[in-house]
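Hello support,

Our group uses your service weekly, and this is the first time we've seen a run hang past the timeout. The protein is Proline--tRNA ligase. I'm not sure whether the cause is the sequence or the server load. Input pasted verbatim:
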Amino acid sequence: MSKKQFVEKITSMEDDFAQWYTDVVTKARLVDYSSVRGSMIIQPYGFKIWENIRDELDRQIKETGHENVYMPLFIPESLLQQEKDHIEGFAPEVAWVTHGGESELQERLCVRPTSEVLFAEHYKNIIHSYRDLPKLYNQWANVVRWEKTTRPFLRTLEFLWQEGHTCHETEQEAIEETERMLHTYASLCEDLLAIPVIKGRKKEKEKFAGARFTYTVEKLDA
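Update from on-call engineer: The timeout came from a worker crash unrelated to the input. Re-ran successfully.
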């Protein structure tokens, strides 16, 4: 197929922006659809882009003293309910494991939509006094959210991500850590990906469930 023929098979951005995006990521072989609705296969070129982003962010995270850890994929329902205020927004999207082989489990297991509850439980067990602070942990993992409307890379049932969870002696230290990482995320978007973003704080009705406040970096697709 000639370059002209290849380009002609890509929908015009002006005609249909959503279809143009899908055509680009599939025809560039960044991603392919899988047999499970809403999930995707990240192909070699697409995964290399992810590796470049991940490696650069991981370097910056480690420079600020964070350590990488890995939490389990499954969360007991009883543990999840202890932090129900924090997972309120994810509750309708939680995927549940009810059987192990042919045997029904005594307690349902949540396939992690995020790992706050696991980090909180772990910190409770390892932090005994202020001498153990700060704790700066980072995790690279996959998470699952049973989305109704999906699009490759932007919104899928399973996706790769990074999440940092830290504990500090004072509220001010926690705020400073959050603002430092906000700058790191914005810098990654602008300096590595050439995507201009706006840093800010979410409105009260938009903040993460259970949070005092939520910081964000935002961009607009036009």
